Amino acid sequence: MYTTRSTTYRPAGTRAGLADLRGLLNTALDILEEAAAGRAGPVAPGGPRAAREAAGRVLAGPLLPDGPADPVAVLHELVRPYAEWAVDVTHPAALARMQPPPTAAAATAELVAATLNQSLHAWESGPFALELDRWVVARLAELVGYGAGAGGTLTSGGSVSNLMALTAARDDVIAAARGRYVFQEGLIDIGVQPVILAPKGIHFSVARAARLLGVGEDHVLTVPVDRHGRMIPEEADRILGSLPGLPGDQVAVALVACAGSTDLGVVDPLPEVAEVARRHGVWLHADAAYGGGALFSERLRPMLDGLALADSVTLDLHKFGWSPASSAALLVRREETLISFGLQPTTCLSADDDTCAGYIGLQNTSLQTTRRADALKIAVTMRTLGRAAMGAMVDACHDLARHAAARIAAEPRLELAAEPPLTAVLFRYLPAAPLDADAFNGALRRRVMEEGRALLARTHIDRGGGRTRVFLKLMLLNPGTTPGLLDQVLDMLLAVAAEQEAAELRALGLDPAAGAAREAAATGA
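RESULT FIELD:
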């Protein structure tokens, strides 16, 4: 305990601080229970305007007041509206994003990590946290099928994992071809133009990584896909074979494969793609941020056959994994490829006395220096649930997706984009002509969210002829949802859509009862 002129500072990890923490935690839990009891849907109604107004009322005061305030009062001032306006990820109609409800054990581990505030950049910042982090990374590497010599790091999410993977790919491939490291000399001095290949439908973070790495979005080459959205390995082979003949000194550094795309759940033919990558000396990166959940399921795991052939894998445990964000990982088949981030050998032939004595941190395996101890909540979650339970939870979500798909396919006014290989279900409502289906579905989504009835995502799907259509997305990551609850959500969506359709037709001076047939709407939208 430290006393200043204005207040008493009681760190959370001291005996006095832990007593304070217990009382404040009970206050916070009381607030969360009250907020939960007052919810009628997955989010408070009113949409963006109401959320801004609520925030404006609460945040009218200064961030840093002149004097101290009672922490209980501050919790009531800030935690209460935070909870009241939080998305209820446990609600069956919270279907928009990849935010599964975390386990209570995981949330507890998060509190412990925050209380003890360990870091991973140096041994003296968190000795056990470092060992736990290394152990979790090693076990996750085994989960994807990597053997001895694998490595990796925990990250804040799939976007950072993809950025790090493509950084390692750029440096590793160019070093092998030219004997020189980009991270030392830069692209101009080495005189090459890196090229990345990826299928249509890959996550947008790949293009963003190309920007940040100096590759440029124009040098992310799209590999054609088949009618199921899967990369065609022969097309990747063709493009890679044509690169030496293109203008400029281009070097293909990475071939990125989907291992569960966020829209359609597409998994590229990983063994065949890996063969192409090896033939051309290109780094293969597999983005399994979402699809990696299939690894827990005996039913779905065969979808990811060949994942261990990739040079790197992105994996998110805060999608499938029921751990709070951030709980993500970049895993690499060869640990030494993390040299781009400063990884150095730890033998005593080339290390200082601290390193020889085992005082080693993880600052050289990550983009971050100070880094929170995310491994604790991952380890607590996985050990608490166990393999069988996690597999059953994944299967339950997959069963919900198949149930939703069957229900949607049976509804005359709904169109299913495709059968879901994982747990994302894409569909749209088919309004009567002359209503535009894209505008209608966009408005339908906004309406149910503003009314607090449901949270849905939206995306654009290629329906042939170079034209895309707006589709709504159900993201099913809550194994506590039942088919009956999901039916209630779909019933509600159909009812709201029918009301909206009638209102829009009347606004055009048309009789809703004399609307055009479904086929006319589908072809004329």
